[in-house]
Design a protein that fits this description.
Length: 82
């Protein structure tokens, strides 16, 4: 079983952050920056500003959900975006 990565992306030209999880970070970042028509396509390019590794998808999903909460956004502001 491969590790799961929770990641935070920053859009340099906007104030937006994106939080997600994946088992293949390089492929996922490529898709955010080059493929599709989803929400992230409007704010390209994206840069990885933070990653965390987890053993299970369930752990990663809980962390991603927390990062999207008010407490998680505050944590990001204090610890990631100085």
């Amino acid at each position: 079983m491969s590790a799961i990565v929770v990641y935070i992306l920053s859009s340099p030209n906007t104030p937006y952050l994106y939080k997600g999880h994946t088992s293949n970070l390089i492929s996922r970042i490529t898709s955010h920056n080059k493929l599709g028509k989803g929400w992230t396509s409007r704010y390209r390019p994206w840069q990885v500003i933070h990653i965390e590794w987890f053993k299970t998808k369930e752990e990663a999903m809980l962390r991603q959900k927390w990062l999207k909460s008010g407490a998680g956004r505050d944590w990001i502001k204090k610890n990631i975006i100085y």
